[in-house]
Design goal:
By secondary structure, this protein is an alpha/beta fold. It is built from eight helices and seven strands; from the N terminus they run βαβαβαβαβαβαααβ. It has two domains: 224 residues, Rossmann fold (3-Layer(aba) Sandwich); 35 residues. α1 crosses α8, α4 runs parallel beside α5 and α6 crosses α7. The chain starts with 7 loop residues before the first strand and ends in a 7-residue tail after the last strand. The structure holds nicotinamide-adenine-dinucleotide. The site of nicotinamide-adenine-dinucleotide (NAD) has 30 residues, from α1 and α6.
């Protein structure tokens, strides 16, 4: 893929093993990018427990693996809800690699699901703060840096099938992911004059750490066993399987590369044909 070698990418939420962010970071590193493995790193309050987050230890392990494959990577902890931490992350990135060319907003919370009548305000805030406000803050800080550099850039938002369709118990998640597509479109038209392209990727179901939690949650809600629930997803998928983290990594690399130089403002489904609008 043209135009990736030597570029620098930050991937938020990439510190959890088996996650989409980890796969994106490793794939970009394989294509010659310098990558920043960024994640919250430590538990924070009742909604960000160690069961759900990428730890500093995992972040370091991912960096080690990338380096062992002759890639360039560093780990920078960053809570995407905190603008000061985002600014620090970008400063450290510039200090280490000299520029920021690709920003992947992947950090996300998809494990806070409640019936709508009981949906807590604090749960709504927790989801929106990471998924939408986090993407806003990171995009803004990245755009400022890219404008200063004057050579364009690529911002990629990892949205979801829930950015196009509704899902039960997921009012906050669905609203946040639809919002991410709105942010993508607005930023694409506004930042185009700086040659900054802004796109979103919309995966369907992938059994990551988060995906595994969702499999358990929805299979219990539907009264199905875990495997029958997953088989149900496979059966309705035109390509006959659930998603894989590498499917998303390849789409992100394409959108980050010069191969997609005339594509901006898109919300690309990577869903085996399950979602098509
Ligand atoms: N797995 C799926 O089926 C699926 C489908 C569609 C979209 N997605 C989206 O893909 C992205 C990655 O999901 P995943 O399945 O790899 O899950 P994951 O849980 O492995 O990754 C999410 C990451 O976000 C991080 N994060 C959470 N709060 C943060 C914060 N405040 N600051 C920084 N990082 C924070 C977590 O620590 C974790 O590492 C998410 O945005 C998710 O909504 C996933």
């Amino acid at each position: 893929m043209k135009g990736l070698r030597g570029k620098t990418a930050i991937v938020t939420g990439s510190g959890r093993q088996q996650g989409i962010g980890e796969a994106i970071a490793k794939y970009l590193a394989k294509k010659g990018c310098n990558v920043v493995i960024s994640d919250i790193g430590e538990p924070s309050g009742k909604n960000f427990t160690k069961t759900h987050i990428g730890s500093s230890k995992e972040m370091k392990a991912i960096v080690k693996e990338i380096k062992a494959s002759k890639g360039n990577a560093i780990a920078i902890p960053c809570d995407v809800r905190k603008s000061k931490q985002i600014e620090d992350m970008i400063s450290k990135t510039i200090k280490k690699f000299g520029s920021l060319d690709i920003m992947v907003n992947n950090a996300g919370v998809g494990y806070i699901m409640e019936p709508f009548e009981e949906f807590k305000e604090s749960s709504w805030d927790a989801v929106l703060d990471v998924n939408l406000k986090g993407a806003f803050l990171c995009s803004q800080a990245a755009a400022r840096q890219m404008i200063k550099q004057g050579k364009g850039g690529s911002i990629i938002n990892i949205a979801s099938q829930a950015a196009k369709s509704g899902f039960p118990f997921a009012a906050a998640y669905t609203a946040s992911k639809h919002g991410m597509v709105g942010l993508t479109r607005s930023n694409a038209v506004e930042l185009g004059s700086h040659k900054i392209r802004v796109n979103a990727v919309c995966p369907n179901h992938i059994t990551t750490g988060l995906g595994h939690w969702q499999n358990k949650f929805f299979s219990e809600k539907l009264g199905l066993d875990y495997d029958s629930y997953l088989q149900g997803i496979v059966d309705k998928n035109p390509l006959g399987r659930t998603g894989r983290v590498d499917d998303i990594a390849r789409a992100v690399a394409f959108l980050a590369s010069d191969e997609s130089s005339y594509i901006t403002g898109e919300a690309m489904n990577v869903s085996g044909g399950e979602e098509y609008h």
